[in-house]
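[SOLVED] Need 3D model of a two-part complex

Original post:
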Amino acid sequence: MKSKLVTVLLTLATIVGGMALAQQTPAPTARADGSTGTVVFFRAKRFVGAVEGIKVREGEGELGRLKNGTYFTIKAAPGKHQYAAHSLYKDLLTLEVDAGETYYLQAILTVGGPELSPSDQATFESLKAELKDLTGTDKKP
Amino acid sequence: MTRWSILGATVLAVPVAGFAQSPPSYVLPSLTPVALVMDAGISSATNKPGDRFPFHVAEDVKQGDLVLIPAGSVGEGEVVDAAKSKFGGRAGKLILAARFVTVDGKPVQLRSFTPGSGKDHANAAYALGGTVSGWAIFIHGGEVVIPAGTAVAAKTTEDVELHAVTQDPR
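Solution:
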């Protein structure tokens, strides 16, 4: 009887410990040691379409959500990636990521729907002061 | 001369002749910048993903005084993404990649395609879009147009063994 109780307690301790460990372990992300590239998605503050959010996806996975005047950064494995900007319609962009490089993609809401376009560091830096960094925040508010 | 001495002379002569015919090779490290010039025009209105385009090396790539990739070497890039401008204010977009440059009959793989000379773009993304300030000069009627003769740059993908073509005369 006593040995059964010990076994049950040990099992419970293992399960609880495992759950705690699972909660502490961060979600798998690409390493930031130069073996990956960095992609910065940003959306400048604009009056047109200000209230509408733009979801950024790769395949079925949502990478983030760009509100007006925000940006977020992801690490991407080298190779081809197809990103999609979604609101009412969607716009696709294929990017070839090289390790150690940084890419800037700008999301804009136009009359024709969301647009995801390649941009550059200078454009991003000129806007950065008025953009809110959403990197690592909850992607689905 | 005996048969053995003839054999000995032959064995000694072969490596010398071998060295004389193949010049020593040098390792060009990965991520070496290569300045390029576009040899064909590319447009978001007419080009499609998968299209290949030619370029050539603008300046000798050297290791010390040795030229490992001579100016004028030809290579190829590829259109990764292209989209025409659309109704509603959507600008055209164009994303390009450098693939290789041929040196001494051998392809040297390239990556990190970027505008400019490459010397001042150590951390630059390659990006050619309708909303890009740095590329605004290439936007015509909402389309991204990169004319032949445009200076671009890339980097070598991996360490590559090359023969010195010439010694820098300067």
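Edit: The CA atoms of residues 48 and 82 of chain B lie 5 Å apart.
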